[in-house]
Write the structure tokens for this entry.
Amino acid sequence: MAGRFKIAIRDIRQGLSKFELWTSLAQDDLRQRYRRTIFGLVWLTLSYLIFIVAKIFIFGAINPAPLPWFAAYVTVGFLVWQMVSAFVVDGCTSLINSETWVKGVKLPYSTYFFESVARDIVIFAYSAVVAVAVLLFTGHFPGLVALSSLAGILLIILNGVFLQMLLGVICLRYRDIAQIVQTGMRVLFFLTPLVWTPDQVGPLADFLIWNPFTYYIDIVRAPLVDFELPLMSWLISICLTLLLAVLSVSVFSVFRNRIPYWF
Amino acid sequence: MPSIKAQNVSLRFRVYDNADGMISPKGAGQISTTQGAKRWVNALKGVSFDLSDGKRLGLIGRNGSGKSTLLKAIAGLLPVTSGHIDVDGEISALIDIAHGMRIEATGERNIILRGMIAGLSKADAKARVLEIAAFAELEDYIRMPVRTYSSGMAMRLNFAIATAFEPDILIVDEWLGAGDRIFQQKAQKRMHSLVDRSGALVLASHDLALIEHQTDEALWLDAGRVEAAGASGDVVSQYMKATR
């Protein structure tokens, strides 16, 4: 077991050092997705903008909060959700989609995890432009506390790496898990305070403590929208990250040798 | 000096797709079942060899006998079930044309990606593009997506890339045959020069003349076991006698 753990850690370290490679692979993934389009990656910004405007006006109409505040709340919340959900959903295919590479060239498997995370960070960055614009437009000028949002984003990215590792390995072996996860994320979108606020749902809000995504959203959104540092959410998010780290590195260590046989 | 040492290597893998039946073709790795309905393929069984004196090893045997599996195991792409493979030197493997390539990306882009995989920086990999493209003789196709290539062209590119970054050990599976006559001669010349530079070569092929001429030693695999090993000429003639 100790030997396997060492091999897994070496895989992660070597993968990390191939920074130029996985950023290039991620770049190619995105280029391929928007191949022969006129706007290219700007589509990410455009579609996010259109989506968010529709959400603000529809859900804003049934929310008692002032519209400028609600607009910032939805835009930032959905931006973070989009990245978190991409990490979860793409995690399921981080290895499955790299089949020809895993079978053809000897690389640390973690290269594919980093590739997947890098791709989702780029998508996040293109959407974040809209969020920054909405924040400024609605008078939410970020203060010093906003720096903690950046730290929150970094923590979520770290979780993203672990999610690629855990889900990438598990979904490769058990192909049904990917379907379960995708369905689950669609349901969780409605169970996370993104387009509604906890005060709108009455006693149902008590159940939110069981939704881990609530805390990850909160550590980025609260400083930007309410100018406060949500200490409880930070504490829970850090604990969840540690839990996920142990789980994912364990799964990767134990099953790393089986990966090429599971395609 | 690059070397490969395989000690009592066995490799079996589980087949997860629903399958039924236990009979495998003559000479191919046997299917077995354990613990109820789990199905396994015994691809390699107790394979040993030592490639340090003879620098060029040939693999022959019937379809499914374990040649490609052994190549993949040497290349570190498939972990073995038991035994050891100790490899000294950087390996470059040409096992499947479709693998290790991005077919939507251009030939040029693939050269850069594979250069980085071989350990070069992006800038160094970029600097090698022209020379590798020239060897593959793809002209302006090098700026087209690989999916537009014929299989021979894809093979040429893959061969040019695999041999460009000075590997110590080159592993080549059958498909070198996809190139046209002129390119095959060129490819053989390059393999020679690589071996002359104190590199090693492992070649699997059904072309027995190729094995005889290009390799010093050979392994004849049958159902995952070593049926015969020794000087290429001897092993090839034994194999020919047995398969007449």
Summary: Residues 116 and 122 of chain B are 6 Å apart (CA to CA). The first strand of chain B starts at residue 3 and ends at 15.
